[in-house]
Amino acid sequence: MKKYKIAILPGDGIGPEIMREAVKVLKLIDSRNPDVSFELEEAPFGASAYFQHGHPFPELTKKVCSSADAILKGPVGLNYEETEKIPVDLRPERGAILPLRKWLNTYANFRPVYLPKALAHFSPLKPEIIGEGIDIMMIRELVGGLYFGAKEVGVNERGLRYVKETLEYDEEQISRILHVGFKTAMGRKKVLHNIHKNNVLKSSVLWNEVLEEVARDYPQVKVVHVLVDAAATLLCLNPGQFDVMVMENMFGDILSDQGGGILGSLGLMPSACLGDDKAYYEPSHGSAPDIGGKNIANPYSMIGSVAMMLDLSFGMSRESKNIWDAMQNVFSQGYSTADLSKPGGDIKMIKTNEFGDRVVSELQKIPSNG
Ligand code: IPM
Ligand code: MG
To answer: What pLDDT digit, counting tens, does each position of 314-342 carry?
Structure first.
């Protein structure tokens, strides 16, 4: 029997309610697989943790995360007024998410942009552009670049306020994420789209140099170089040409949100953040404080993050696929939640908890090894 400890960080806004549904799915997986057992331990993280414990990433949460085999994290952040009450460096992004990423050294962020038939009606793209569906794995470097480079704020010799933020990467940071990109491409269509901006940025020149070296280890993979601005356009015009895309941190932040845009919602974007020793899983979207507590947020991204955890942290690829299938089944039966429905659409509207219950009951119909 394998025992896995999972740290549960529900977060803020819609976090706790979508996390509840993800936990339902985890409990079913636990109960129907006699050879694994999950021990779930909840810990505070985010803006609510700041108000309750004085820090958005309290020591007690670090302890829970250190001893966990994997971490499931909900979105964090409160509304503008509440956020204003928190000192700038203790706001959940700078005070919790970025430190978590750095601390765990989760340098590889997997963001699937996945639009199977059952979800196609959510997309703003025309059916002829979507074709057979969209299935892209965006791989984003997560602990380097502008996000973590040296920063300086001050007044210059002309008396003007100025800011300086640096985009730093060394070749080791670049090569390890590129290896992840190539390995992922090897397991899929053996095509890797390298997203860069080498016509302007020196960081991209080094990135591409390192890529030529790493590519020698993967002769079967075809590399396609695309400038990041062009990639933004191509994602709208012809997303089907992409399979695995690899890019630095800031490019990945922006293009993955665009990925959510072409799916029709960031609510359809789960993610996995992997390091060599530790991993955490989170939706790519924010905490939507305006709809928090209303039981209308779709838990897809949180349950999808569970599916990614089972596959990537616990080697349970079959159950992972079963969870994806169960969610598609709920959508193909016409159900959705208010946050994920177009006005006038032909949708059977259900609440967050009902969506979770329906995923669980669909999952029960699929045998654990089937
Ligand atoms: C994301 C988010 C974060 C980021 C924020 C919340 C710090 O936008 O995970 O994409 O910019 O990386
Ligand atoms: Mg983002």
So the answer is: 999 999 999 999 999 999 999 999 998 86
